[in-house]
């Protein structure tokens, strides 16, 4: 039966055993050769330690730890991770897992190897001895400060464990625990930021039933869920809908907070049913009075399906694309004023025809911009796309995002497609006709 034996530190040699000049026994005999060997071992240890904690991912840190342990002492290594009071089985196994002790023993050791008392000072590992086989096994605590993140379990066959190896394995575990502490703190902060970003990424309002609308948002990178790009729809009187896309300067959570403020400005101001250029003027006035508000570009499109018309106004934003009934696309010209929060004003509106089977596409610059490319060439690439006649708004967005390879975009992307249709009145008697009347 296997048993866990708590190891004890060897006492330091008495001061009387040291030679004159502070050298220990044997140092005079070996001289430069031993010093060179010690320097090489120290360099190798530094390189090993540098290979732990290269990321802020806890699973990657555990894998780096077990690889370092096997490089240092051979055999096999694994980690048992602690989450609250719960312990996992073997994770991040490196080498032949069959060499490792029974995981139940390791879990029991992890329970016993809590944070040691300040005056106890035990060795930071437990040695595992098994009857009927030669070899060594060790369980080192992953402890940083007052927090325990589990244990490093290491084993090999053949040579018994040397104390110097145990010391080094415990040092690796200590270094990994420090990195785990930072990684888990970062994960908690990222989770909190993600919750806030999801709250900021509100769905656009519901347009009138005479308008089909589809919206997509694709954040740049993996960590950021939402930045400063946004879309919005606002119902107006007489069956009209105001479509909006905007882009706050910068990236990340700070831009997302300003984005939420601009959306609030827009919803409040647009409720007065002003022309698009006057909505922009008032948004600019409000934002300019707040010194810390980041500038933003914005494009407004007031769609009136009853009249077959769209009215556009832009605050430094790129023009929209109109997809005709035959599947061809073209850019719609729009007077461009300064970005919001500059306080300069000077916005104008422009009217264009919008037939029921045509699709209007509004987007932020991340959709088309490419590093080192002129923006006119970027817009021309979008306008050159061809679509299948009769495509719905969702299919149009799929085509655009796929053909422009937006997955590799360097900036956030927000895109909105809208297609008006005329709601025809039901024929006389249709509302009272039912199964009994047939």
Topology (elements, then pairings):
Layout lengths: L2 E4 L20 H4 L1 H19 L7 H16 L2 E8 L2 E9 L8 H10 L12 E5 L5 E10 L2 E11 L5 H38 L10 E8 L10 E7 L5 E8 L3 H19 L5 H13 L7 E9 L4 E7 L5 E3 L5 E3 L4 E2 L12 E4 L5 E5 L11 H9 L9 H11 L9 E8 L18
Parallel strand pairs: 11-14
Antiparallel strand pairs: 1-4, 2-3, 2-6, 4-5, 5-6, 7-17, 8-9, 9-10, 10-11, 11-15, 12-13, 12-16, 16-17
Helix pairs in contact: 3-5, 5-6, 6-7
Notes on the structure:
The chain is of the alpha+beta class and 438 residues long. The protein folds into 2 domains: 143 residues, GAF domain (Beta-Lactamase, 2-Layer Sandwich), CATH 3.30.450.40; 219 residues, PPM-type phosphatase domain (Phosphatase 2c, domain 1). The protein has 9 helices and 17 strands. The strands form 3 sheets. It has a 6-stranded antiparallel β-sheet. Strands 8, 9, 10, 11, 14 and 15 form a 6-stranded mixed β-sheet that branches. α3 runs antiparallel to α5 and α5 packs parallel to α6. The chain is elongated, with a radius of gyration of 34 Å.
Q: Any key phrases for this structure?
A:
438 residues; six-stranded mixed beta sheet; Beta-Lactamase; Phosphatase 2c, domain 1; 2 domains; disordered N terminus; 25% strand; elongated; 9 helices
Q: What is shown here, in short?
A:
This protein is 32% helix and 25% strand. It is an alpha+beta fold and 438 residues long.
